[in-house]
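task queued by scheduler; priority normal; single chain, no ligands, no partner chains; default sampling; output format set to structure tokens
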Amino acid sequence: PTGFIDAEHYGQYAVLVPMVATESGWTLLFEKRAAKLARQPHEICFPGGRIESGEQPLACAVRETAEELQIQGEQIEVLGPGDIYLSPFRSIVYPFIGIIRDYRQTFNPDEVSGVLQIPLAFFQQNQPELYTIRLNRQFPDDFPHELIPGGERYPWPDILYKIYFYRYSGEVIWGMTSHILKSAVGLIVDTGLLDDLHS
């Protein structure tokens, strides 16, 4: 099978985009990362984590979700894969869209400070705010410009990065999570993923 060039230099992760049924319809479940975490404390994300050696992305997404939400793997029904997210910051994320059954608001406080459920309809009806930033290009002093046609005047393309922001009841979802969220909601709608499921 084919893979990604230079994939060994990227962190590889898997997440679940979990849906939970409520009396008023489907919600998406998010975690708020614990304050004591070294990476991205307080940020809102989907459950998931780093893929272990020899582990398949789907198995990682289910394992991490069960650990972080303190549920059984049998409570998770994976409906299908989402679009792979390739970050310019050397991360590859494999999302999976699924359902969590009989969820009782549990979570592992070592990793998660709280959970929030936001109606799927909110994301269907509201597009995120979009901002585009230009990533800096810096060359080492010994970069061999003379080996490139045009040398130092070579017309390198701008490296642009889109950042989405969703705001909901005082909470902000942004970064990689917002990219995965926007894509997943589009897939759920475009494929009719929930048409045969009852909330």
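post-processing summary
- Helices lie at 57-69, 120-125, 175-190.
- The longest helix spans residues 175-190.
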